[in-house]
Amino acid sequence: MYQNNIYNKPEIKQRGKLKTSKIMNQKISFDKKIERKPFWITTKKPINEHVLNLKKLIRKNKLHTVCEEASCPNLGECFSNGTATFMILGDICTRRCPFCDVAHGKPKKPDINEPDNLANIINKMELKYIVITSVDRDDLIDRGASHFLRCIQKIRQKCNETKIEILVPDFRSKVDSALGILEKSPPDVFNHNLESIPRLYKQIRPGANYHASLMLIKKFKERNKNVLTKSGLMVGLGEELNEVMQVLVDLKRHNCDMVTIGQYLQPSRYHLPVKRYVHPDEFKELANYAEKLGFINVASAPMVRSSYHADMQVFSI
Predict the structure, then answer these.
(1) Is beta strand 64-65 parallel, antiparallel or unpaired with respect to 85-88?
(2) At 2, is the pLDDT very low, low, confident or very high (cuts 50, 70, 90)?
(3) Would you give the distance in Å from CA 23 to the centre of its chain?
(4) Are 89 and 110 within 8 A, CB to CB?
(5) Phi, psi of 152, deg, nearest 5
(6) Torsion over CA of 175, 179, 181 and 185, rounded to 10 degrees?
(7) pLDDT tens sequence across 232-257
(8) How are the residues of the chain apportioned to helix, strand and coil, as percentages rounded to the nearest 5?
(9) Residue 248 burial class via C-beta count within 10 angstroms: exposed 0-12, middle 13-18, buried 19 and up
């Protein structure tokens, strides 16, 4: 009864055990301490006054960043450089992915002022490159595609020199209609993360479909041939190196131009545990393999995240 009551209240966020206990393998112990990380797993730039000021500015404009909501380890570095990945459509996700620290629950209605607020803060910060992502909104008929479109249009109006990357959900069962909406004002980069190998999908991305995600990237590129496409992967969750290589092959065959590969880090003891800390040499091996496949830009290293140094990836092409 308690969990049902919580789910029915949009203002309540389900985090940690409340979010993941229903879908996690019961053999996983929540009492197990997170293992000490190897020396090559490091975060940069501690929280400083500039970071705090940026957080205040974001709060003032009633916006969210995935950097904070997903507990990204690179937050200090990115915020110190004046960059952020904005998360639209609220901060409550309709799915319970056990690798992710974003809260689950019943989302509020989309904020009609969010596109204007987003454009205003980008203009004030004079950002040349921004990433817009969102929570999954399976409760919306178009899965949030029209809200993405309005955000893009407002940014184009107020900040016409700003490059826009969108990191979208899978638009479950509404891919064609969602792509039709985004086609009205496409971004400069279209990003959708596969996250992992197909063998682990039921465990890592419940509610998602590996082949549907591949088709989303392929179909977008077919409709928008001049827009760069991108995807991201996590490693360290039980996959084999050859399985990751096969995902890279699949991505290239489905019109993906750029790829990021990074180490999965367990946000809390209530999330999927790290099975292995992948050595930097293996990240280099994956990068070399991806480059040989023909990806025009590859970012593969332990601390890489999907939108980490996203501007540098694009401007280096």
Answers:
(1) antiparallel
(2) very low
(3) 21
(4) yes
(5) -60, -45
(6) 160
(7) 999 999 999 999 999 999 999 999 99
(8) 40, 15, 50
(9) buried
DSSP H or E stretch at residue 261: strand 258-263
205 three-class SS:
coil
Residues 6+ apart with CB under 8 A from 56: none
Three-state SS string over 113-177 comes to: CHHHHHHHHHHHHCCCEEEEEECCCCCCCCCCHHHHHHHHHHHHHHCCCCEEEEECCCCCCCHHH
Its sign, for the CA torsion 308, 262, 232, 296, is positive
Question: Buried (b) or exposed (e) across 160-191, using 16+ Cβ within 10 A?
Answer: eebbbbbbbbbbbebbeebbebbeebbbbbbb
Q: Rounded mean pLDDT of the chain?
A: 85
Structure tokens at 82: 């004046």
Mean pLDDT of 83-87: 77
Which of 131, 132, 127 is closest to 162 using CA atoms?
Answer: 127
Burial of residue 134, with CB atoms counted within 10 A of its CB: 0-12 exposed, 13-18 middle, 19 or more buried: buried
The model's confidence at residue 1, banded by pLDDT at 50, 70 and 90, is very low
Q: What is the pLDDT of residue 126?
A: 79
Residue with tokens 């309709």: 94
